[in-house]
Amino acid sequence: MTVPPSPDGATTAPPVPIDMQTLLARHDVLLLDAYGVLVDKVGPLPGAQALIAHLNARDRPYFVLTNSASRLPSTLAGHFHAQGLAIPEQRIISSGALLGAYFRANGLRARPCLVLGTSESLRYVRDAGGRPVPVDEADEAEAVVLADQAGFPLIDTLDEALSLILRRMDAGRPIHLVLCNPDLIYPQASGRYGFTAGGLATMIEAVLRERYPVSQTGFVRLGKPYRPMFEEAARRSRSRDLLMVGDQLATDILGARRFGIPSVLITTGLVRVTDRSWPPEMAPTYLLSSLSPS
User: What 3-state class would DSSP assign to 51?
Assistant: First the structure.
């Protein structure tokens, strides 16, 4: 029997060691983090190929939830296929794909946006209905979309984005700040890590808090651990019997708990499970040592 979550997604018992075969018997829909669970920058992680092959062969519903907004689902699917993971693009939910709903809700369709990210990050914004503008035309931008940490001259573009935000706030003009990827870091390979867009957004917000102490202006976050990504997974799956498999407490596990679904921490990922003194709101339902379904 599945360990029941509390209303905020917290489990009522300590994390339970479990195997993938048992998980598949207990839950209908798997939500899989990408980097740190299925792959890293070197290649597929242990058990990932066997798990995806198993799910595909049995037509089991699953979705890959990635905070990446640097590549379109079609590009990500090609990347996964090249690593022996036959994941269809329809099973990939990226944070960039969540921009459309935000733009519709906030009247940003056809409005100028400064986009920090790759060429495919700009495509996400265009597909959402926004109008990306180059850095040298940033004064007209009504939104800053921080999609990725790559694809642009980092320091110069961050300076321009910060200057745009401060000029508009000083003039009392509204500015939308949208962060696709809330992750602070990501695993590159064993023992190697890198900063992500979430780290850059945190730096900008520190400046805003110091300059405008009473202002609540900050980035709206779309990816895990925030609700939009989990709501999209529930919408596509037409189910609430979802199980999140992740390697980061602050995104995968916390997001599942907030959404009220059980979660699995893969013990080979970013979190060092030798120290289980994690905050109560980030405790996973299960601990998993291998993705292999056999």
Answer: helix
**Per-residue tokens: 237:** 């799956």
178: alpha, beta or left, given left = phi > 0 and alpha = psi -120 to 50? beta
| CB 164, CB 203: distance < 8 Å | no
Contact by Cβ (8 Å): 121, 147: yes
Neighbouring C-beta atoms of residue 135, cutoff 10 Å: 17
Residue type for position 8 = D
The dihedral built from the CA positions of residue 138, 144, 147 and 148, taken in this order, carries a sign that is: positive
- 2 DSSP assignment: P
Residue 216: Cβ within 10 Å count: 7
C-alpha to C-alpha distance for 159 and 245, rounded to whole angstroms: 37
| Segment 194-241, tens digit of pLDDT | 889 999 999 999 999 999 999 989 999 999 999 999 999 999 999 889
The DSSP code sequence of 213-247 is TT----PEE-STTSHHHHHHHHHHHT-S-EEEEES
Q: How do residues 45-78 score in pLDDT, each as one tens digit?
A: 999 999 999 999 999 999 999 998 999 999 999 9
**pTM of the complete model:** 0.87
CATH number of 97-221: 3.40.50.1000
Report residue 4 as tokens.
């029941």
The CATH superfamily label for domain 25-94+224-288 reads HAD superfamily/HAD-like (3.40.50.1000)
Contacts with 97 (C-beta within 8 Å, 6 or more apart), sequence order:
73, 124, 232
Element (H, E) at 101: helix 99-105
